[in-house]
Amino acid sequence: MVSGFWGARLFHVFYEQWPFYNEYPSEIFKFWKGGFVYFGGFFSAGFFAFIYLLFKKQNFLNWANFMTPLLSASYSLGRVGCFFEGCCYGRFCSLPWAIDGRHPTQLYMVFSEFFILGFLLFIEKQKKILHGILFFMWIFLHSIFRFVFELFREDDRGNFFLGLSISQWISLGLIIGLIFMAIFYILKKQYTLKNKI
């Protein structure tokens, strides 16, 4: 929790608002004013959890599977907080469900995450699931929805590259990485079966 908290905070500081914090460094510690980036917290917490479990000689993927529904639920609740705070707002639109004339992108992410959570809980009840499959499924589905809904956001989140936000680039990298992992796993399994025959 601590590493995730500071990872989310520092990602915001160094990527989104570095000119401001460089001029007023004491503001870095005033986290109650807001300023967190989800992916910063996710990668930071994941890294330190992996190191900790390695030290404890426990399987990271087993714990990742166990924690995944909680991660999904906590993310959706976090976006509810974004909605009430008024951050992470969307572009202007005239759709019937617009709120203050904008896409309610926070609620888009809440509802999509509830869908993902329901799907994960269904998969979790299956008798045989691979180590880490819930974790990888969540990352894949979450990244797809995140990439799409980022298209409707308009809040300032730092520099862009090729018209995509940093969150979209991270999401795209995760999606491609998981596709390659799945292909590698399938090919490896086929190779193993072929050798057994």
- Determine the N-to-C terminus distance: 48 Å
Rg calc: 19 Å
Query: H/E element string?
Result: HHHHHHH
Q: What is the number of E strands?
A: 0
Residue fraction in strands: under 5%
Helix- and strand-based class? Answer: mainly alpha
Overall pLDDT score: 89
Envelope shape? globular
User: So how many helices?
Assistant: 7
> Which blocks of ≥5 consecutive residues have pLDDT under 50?
none
Give descriptors for this structure:
globular; mainly alpha; 197 residues
Summarize the helices and strands and which ones pair or pack.
Elements lengths: L1 H15 L1 H6 L14 H18 L4 H26 L19 H20 L8 H18 L15 H31 L1
Structure description:
- The protein has 197 residues and is mainly alpha-helical.
